Amino acid sequence: MLALGTQGALLGLSAAAQPGPFQGYLVAQSLRNGAARSLPLALVPFLSDPPVVAVVLAVLGQVPDAFVRWLGLAGGAVVLWLGFGALRAALAGGPAADDPAARTRPRGMVRAVLVNLTNPNAWIFWSLVGGPILTAAWRASPARALAFLAGFYALLTAGNVALVLLAGRAAAAGPRLARALGVASGVALLAFGAWQLLRAFPRA
To answer: Domain range for residue 66?
Structure first.
């Protein structure tokens, strides 16, 4: 079980460290709303991954190419939409820390879940890597499967929390830096969205 937990932890750390739409959205939200308000977003994989894992395991680890392609198109559109929103907020200066509207504004949990659900990388990972490991571990013993999942989500969540805190600290360094980083995160989301759309189109 220790080996499976370690394997899950390494895969979780790798997933957290890999730049992608979800990481870009975490940074944008932390810069815009502060680390404290954005920390719950680090738990989004616990909400978005169960449907992905269930579907992948139900079809024996194979996700049809057409499904991934349509998912990529939808996900790319979602990320572009979020990128424009992040860029607009950064250029407008973002909500003030003492603004009552900022304190009552939704923290973006639903949008973050949508980003993860429409991210083809999550489906491909659970189809080709995580799903087979989890299935083999479950057949050997449910405890082994739980050890793999515990290791994976412990490091994935820790990585997400670290990213939110780092972005929040950068935002606290001054409005100019926060605005520059907000613009950068918005541009990054636009780039991720465009890349996801291009990758979803079938190659000739």
So the answer is: 2-200
